[in-house]
Amino acid sequence: MEMIAATEILARSSTVTSVGWIGYIIIGAIAGWIAGKIVKGSGSGILMNIVIGVVGALIGGFLLSFFLDTAGGGWWFTLFTAVLGAVILLWIVGMVQRKKV
């Protein structure tokens, strides 16, 4: 039973939309940059923006999949999802870093 739940959670977070992998990289870079502006006020460099944006897209896609059909989204929906997830990711990282200092 637990294996099915883990598989379902993984499937929710990694659903591929109509954008494709190259689109995810482009959207990831844009989303990471936007999230950096929202949370910290500055970007983190293109490579880190891509990583933050792609991981953010997975987080945002997972969270939104409980409410919406995320697989049907196009470029704009994927960008919104990635920015949402990246902002959440940067907020959590910021909270952890503040506790260490």
Q: How does this structure look, described?
A:
This protein is an all-alpha fold and 101 residues long. It has one domain. It has helices at residues 2-13, 21-39, 46-64, 75-100. The longest helix has 26 residues, at 75-100. It is globular. 30% of the residues are buried. The mean pLDDT is 76. It comes from Mycolicibacterium aurum (Mycobacterium aurum). Keywords: Cell membrane, Membrane, Transmembrane, Transmembrane helix. InterPro entries: Transgly_assoc. The chain crosses the membrane at residues 21-39, 46-68, 74-96.
Quick gist of this model?
The chain is an all-alpha fold.
Structural class: mainly alpha
What characteristic shape results from the CA principal axes?
globular
Cα end-to-end separation: 41 Å
The value of Rg in angstroms is 14 Å
Mean pLDDT: 76
Instruction: Give the count of structural domains.
Output: 1
Subcellular location: Cell membrane
Transmembrane segments: 21-39, 46-68, 74-96
Family: Belongs to the UPF0410 family.
Main location: membrane
Task: Give the secondary structure arrangement, pairings included.
Blueprint: H1 2-13, H2 21-39, H3 46-64, H4 75-100
Question: Top keywords for this entry?
Answer:
mainly alpha, 101 residues, globular
